[in-house]
Amino acid sequence: MNVGVLCSGSGTNLQALIDKAAKGELGPARLTVVGSNVPDCAALARARAAALPTFVIDHRDYKTRATFDQALLAAMRSHQVDLLVLAGFMRVLGDEVLAAFPQRVVNIHPTLLPAFPGVHAHKQTYDYGVKIAGCTVHFVDGGVDTGPIIAQAAVGVQDDDDEEAMRARILVEEHRLLPAVVRAIAERRVIVEGRRVRVLTAKSSREVIRSL
Ligand code: GRF
Questions:
Q1: Is the backbone of residue 118 left (phi > 0), alpha (psi -120 to 50) or beta?
Q2: How many Å lie between the centroid of ligand 1 and the Cα of residue 76?
Q3: CATH number, domain with residue 61
Q4: For the chain, what is the domain count?
Q5: What is the CA(203)–ligand 1 centre distance, in A?
Q6: By three-state DSSP, how is residue 3 classified?
Q7: ∠ CA 186-184-44 to the nearest 5 degrees?
């Protein structure tokens, strides 16, 4: 399964995918291309360092969301992308892209959704004073961080944490969760039933296949 990754920032989640792929731990998922809307972001440098093809589609060059989306779509198609992973991609995708990748666009968000969707998620989480924070990998639908949840990981917030310490602890879990979900999707172990998503273990998935 060909995986295209879209990023806008530092790209540590992209790096986690790259590192897993290098160790042969992404199963049949293959990183095919990395795209960004931010021409000089660190994520692109990470992709280049890993010898992955990259492209930049700068949203400021497009008058409408629709034309931006069409350019993204064309780039994904030219790299024969099957699964689109948003790893710190700071643009909302439109209907045309989502329709082209049904249940094949995933996003990582640094909260336990549905708590604290949208931007400034860490600040929202920290300022609210929650004791359990975390991260979510979910399918992308037309809303902001509203699609069906695939996997979540919880992280305790300590009394002496500042926002940065909390962010760092969440990030460790992000780097574990996102590659695991990408691998599970590529291994066809992710079953979507409306809003409920089941991730079969490798073992149970063999049992399901045997029983078919
Ligand atoms: C992560 O916190 C992710 O959850 C959010 O954006 C951030 C991206 O970080 N969607 P990085 O670019 O992967 O380092």
A1: left
A2: 21
A3: 3.40.50.170
A4: 1
A5: 31
A6: strand
A7: 65
One-character DSSP codes across 111-155 = S-TTSS-SSSHHHHHHHHT-SEEEEEEEE--SSSS-SPEEEEEEE
Which residue puts its alpha carbon closest to atom 12 of ligand 1? 11
Q: What is the pTM of this model?
A: 0.94
Give the rounded distance of the alpha carbon of 2 from its chain centre: 14
Q: How far apart are CA 148 and CA 139, in angstroms?
A: 5
| Residue 129, domain extent | 2-209
Place of tokens 């069409």: 70
Answer positive or negative: Cα dihedral of 142, 150, 23, 101. negative
Q: Which residues on neighbouring strands pair with residue 191, listed in sequence order?
A: 198
pLDDT tens per residue across span 61-111: 999 999 999 999 999 999 999 999 999 999 999 999 999 999 999 999 999
Sign of the four-CA dihedral 197, 201, 202, 206: negative
Catalytic residue numbers, as ranges: 109
Q: How far apart are CA 67 and CA 58, in angstroms?
A: 11
**Main-chain phi, psi angles of 14, to 5 degrees:** -60, -45
First to last CA, the chain: 23
